[in-house]
Amino acid sequence: MQAVIFDLDGTLLDTAKDLASAVNYALAKRGLPTHTTQDVLKMVGNGVYVLIDLATPSSVTPAEKTAVLEDFRAYYMKHMGECTQEFTGLGDVIKELCAQGIKLAVVSNKPDAATKALVSAYFPNAFLFVQGQLEEVPRKPHPESTVMALAKLGVAPQDAIFVGDSETDVACARAAEVPFVGVSWGFRTRQQLKEAGATQIVDTPEELRSFLKKLRL
Hints:
two-stranded antiparallel ribbon; alpha/beta
């Protein structure tokens, strides 16, 4: 193993409360029904367009959805660090990988600006490639962003590992022909990961550390 590609939301960072707060702020501003944090998490993983589409009632017009999306984006960029936390122990995993010379990347469906800001804040100088959702790049599960990460890192697919928490990540890794390990502490359950096709799943950052260490031996 020469490289590890991480998803961000639900994998490296617990962003649930800040995402839900931003969604509900944007909905409430337009007088639309709001959602629990758990309900919002079920909508997360396929980019902000899908998130807002799922969060708004079917009666909402495309123009209204666009307005909700813009309100969400503006609010989230200002408040995205208020409740967000690193999953306990992952910082040590990242430091160990860096110390061992493993190349690291983040590939996320979160908007690119927010992805880069959060990674820089919580894991400064650890990742050689960080990319969120861009208009010109298909979002996961399309493999293009992962292929770009591999090219930047100079690593073949079989020499990397993709670490993620969702069915989108499972499908993305498969499409890019990168071995996958799922984490059950994120926004999907172990059962959902299994149903999506994940055959290797870890339940704690320490289990992830041990799994990745074995691959380096």
